[in-house]
Give the backbone structure.
Amino acid sequence: MQKTIYTRLRDLITREQPVALATVVAGDDIGAQVLIQPDHAAVSMLTDTALVGLVQQDALAMLLRGDQGIQTYGARQIFIETYPPPATIIMVGAVHIAVALTTFAKPLGFRTIVVDARGAFATNERFGHADELVHAWPDEALQGRLHSNTAVVVLTHDPKLDDPALLVALPSAARYVGALGSSKTQAARVIRLREAGLSDDQIARLHAPIGLPIGGRTPEEIGLSIMAQIVAVRNGKSL
Amino acid sequence: MRDVVDAIDTWQQRGERVAIATVVRTLGSSPRGVGAKMVVSDAGNMAGSVSGGCIEGAVFTACQQAIRTGQATLMHFGVPDESAWEVGLACGGTIDVFIEPLGISE
């Protein structure tokens, strides 16, 4: 592995940025590598630009799925390893349900980020168990944090806060987007989101009313239903 | 890779040269999945793992050689079920491990 490629890979892994590394393990150019990042030009030791393009395309698809393994390109076998960012749940609205959801998320292997501009809600006392507390408007807070391993849970119950979050989250790479509210609330929300310019496909991505139908009433039960739905989506089950 | 970065940092700061071994393919049951890494330095240090301990010895030697020659190689460990216990892969699976030196400079 070239030092420049290792240094770059190490830096990206340490900062938990998504990256894939492709290595020729059999055939010509054994040991040659290509470092691939979403939205960046590939760093390549291979000079065949058509091959690099194919590898880049496959690597990005595998990164999104969290797969890795050997792919065959003509006489070359290329091992593609992927480093997706850690699974993260971003909660918009530091409400009681978010307290419960944060508790459930940790043992299931999710990072938790709680976003609320209202300082009285997003306190360390209530969210000492969250990995990060962000005091900002949701659309600002979400910028740059949404990737294929992110779930966004919108819980404020206030269209002034919920809608800007959804307008950023639904067109993004986030794997899961859900919003609290009854079917009636959801119907009104769909109209607003469409007026704000979202496509029908983008709006259809929204899980609302949020959570699996387990008859949850308390914040803890609703938190559990949301948690279960996020796990189902992570495991490729549509519920 | 995340689990071996600290070891690589420490060894490189001491001026040691490093090789990286990566599980690139497995067939049948194997204790470490694809992507598992073990790193070795020319001073004889080792971190991470590529199996349950069965092939680490051979991989260690291959890593030392890769540091000396600068050459990357693909190693194949395949064990039929009946002799699996003797050779080490108790699972009877096969593992391909890619060995590469980590460059000091370009």
